[in-house]
């Protein structure tokens, strides 16, 4: 199918970009800027492999909001690499949040906190944070720095509870997480 070929091409492009950017983590560029660019590329490409709930409609149906809380360097790097970008039929929009009191307009939320906001998964909100504890504490995706490599973990249970569908292609690239273990 054309869709499967397109997704494979995008996945291969994602891998090429991520492998090409990984040298910056230990390169001549200062770490915060290099790692922020790498994380920004991850975030944008995660969104390419996630389907949000079909009934998630707001007044900005032609926009996809990427929100950042306590992650100014990452927000800046993300804004730089996504100028004029679109995800499908939605334009990429960046918001820096001063607090977590109004995340209702966010489609994706990156936070530097070790715990995602709220008491559990929020419908239609892809939560991403730093460190393996983020998925254990109820986040959907955690970015984990292992040596000089940036990896990610996915909590499938939280993603399902948030009614997010994560592509099997992306799941195959992720490290295992607590949400991957089935209860017997």
Please sum up the structure shown.
The chain has 184 residues and is an alpha/beta fold.
General description of the model:
The protein is an alpha/beta fold and about 180 residues long. Helix content is about 35%, strand content about 25%. It is built from six helices and nine strands. The strands form two sheets. It has a seven-stranded mixed beta sheet with strand order 3-4-2-5-6-7-8. The chain has a two-stranded antiparallel sheet with strand order 1-9. A hairpin with a 2-residue loop joins strand 7 and strand 8 (about 150-155). The longest helix is centred in the N-terminal third of the chain and has 20 residues, at about 1-20. The radius of gyration is 16 Å and the shape is globular.
